Amino acid sequence: MSSSQLSSAQIARKAKSNLAFALGCLSKERKRDMITFYAFCRVVDDIADDPATSEEDKERELNHWKTCVLEGTPPGHSVLDEALDLPKKYGFPRAWMAEIIEGVASDITKNRYETFEELLGYCYKVASVVGLVSIEIFGHEKPETRDYAINLGYALQLTNIIRDVGQDARETGRIYLPQEDLKQFNVSESDLLSGIPSEKLNKLLDFEYHRARDYYAAAQKALPQEDRKHMVASEIMAEIYSTILEKLKRRRYPIFEQRVKLLRVHKAWILGKHMLRAKFGRY
Fold first, then answer.
1. Share of residues in the chain with pLDDT > 90 (%)
2. Cut 0.85: pTM above it
3. SS3 of residue 36 by DSSP
4. Strand, coil or helix: 224
């Protein structure tokens, strides 16, 4: 069954995402709306990554989705039709969803980033804007919480990039690590594309690790106390991904051997810990 025939809930269950896991702490309505938003992001990403579709057709379909989002016009797709209700319901700009589509669409033709600033522009669209939409659905009160969402988006996406360096190079030929960083640490593209581990690559990944850690810290610093009780789901995500980041560093980045992840029981423990904190007002 294609994604166009699946409901939002079916897409979330099929993906087995950490985000879908973290939504267990939300109220029924907010959880349903976050699943709808997650499914929107998942389907858009699947369009861009579909190996059976030409670049032209992918770009055409995503441009159509972007137009529908900006105009608020349902295109007759079960997930997008449902997702189009979210901006009006929660009062965020439809342009945010269009930015997510733009970011994902860039993966179709762009597979290198010259500078870290250029990479951050990509991370903003595919992760930080996802965070901005998410905190509206979670129900934040303070405008400063948007800085939290932006910084956490950077941290999560950088964690993904570090974890998936080997897989991205092997399966898609994409190298998200900035070219300027490869040069600084004398790591060649062929090292990544051929799956050659080295101490110089580990030093490069240590450098990116510290960048990600800085964004996790910046996110925590930006989160107002008044909104901590609303950000339980995002804090679960932050702990899951920061734990993955620490696991990567501790194992010296086995990026060509495995995709580092947490056991379900570990994620359940993180979920339970945060839900207990929320229940007893410890946030």
1. 83
2. yes
3. helix
4. coil
Q: Tell me the C-alpha distance between 279 and 100, whole Å.
A: 33
How far apart CA 194 and CA 248 sit, in angstroms, is: 20
**Which pLDDT value is given to residue 2?**
47
List the domain boundaries for the chain.
Answer: 1-108, 110-283
DSSP-derived secondary structure letter, 225: G
Q: Domain 110-283 adopts which CATH fold?
A: Farnesyl Diphosphate Synthase (1.10.600)
Per-residue pLDDT tens over the stretch 2-15: 455 566 766 666 65
> CB-based burial of residue 95 (10 Å sphere; 0-12 exposed, 13-18 middle, 19+ buried)?
middle
Low-confidence spans in the chain with pLDDT less than 50: 1-2
**φ/ψ bin of 26: left (φ > 0), alpha (ψ from -120 to 50), beta (otherwise):** beta
* Contact assessment for residue 232 and residue 25, using Cβ atoms and an 8 Å cutoff: yes
Task: Give the Cα separation of 7 and 75 in Å (integer).
Answer: 15
Q: Report residue 34 as tokens.
A: 């976050």
- Comparing CA positions, the residue from 97, 152, 94, 96 lying closest to residue 123 is 152
Structure tokens that stand for 234 in this block: 């995002």
Q: d(Cα 13, Cα 148) in Å, to the nearest integer?
A: 27
Q: What b-and-e string marks burial along 145-173, b requiring 16 or more CB atoms within 10 Å of the CB?
A: bbbbbbbbbbbbbbbbbbbbbbebbbeee
Which of 233, 252, 240 lies closest to 22, judged by CA?
233
Name 112's bridge partners.
175
